[in-house]
Specification:
Radius of gyration: 15 Å
Structural class: mainly alpha
Strand content: under 5%
Largest sheet: none
Helix content: over 70%
Length: 112
Amino acid sequence: MNANKRPVTVLIVACMFIAVGVLGFGYHLRELLTLQKDSVWVELTELLALVCGVFLLRGQNWARWVAVAWVALHVMVSVLNTSHGIVVHSFLFMLTAWLLFRTEAARYFRGP
C-alpha cells in the first residue's frame, strides 16, 4: 500500500467505482443468469469498475488510467444511445480525469 496520504478526491472516486461495480454487477446479474446478449461483457465491465476502485485505494497508478478509460468507454457507448447519456458521461469523464490527475493525486499515485 502506498505510504502517501490518500487525497479525499481519490477516496471519493474509488468509492464511486466500487459502488458502481458492486451495484451494477448485482443489477445486471439476472441478465447474465438468463444468458442475454452481451451480458458477459456488461458484467466484466462492472467487475473492472470494482477492481479499479479497489486498486485506486491502494495507490496503483495503472488503476487511475484504467478508470479514466472505463469512463471513456461509456462515453463511446453513449454515442449509440441518447444525447443525454453523452452529456452525462462526458461530464463524468472530465470530472474523473480531473480528480485523478490533480497534483495531489499524481503525487499519491507516484508513491514514496
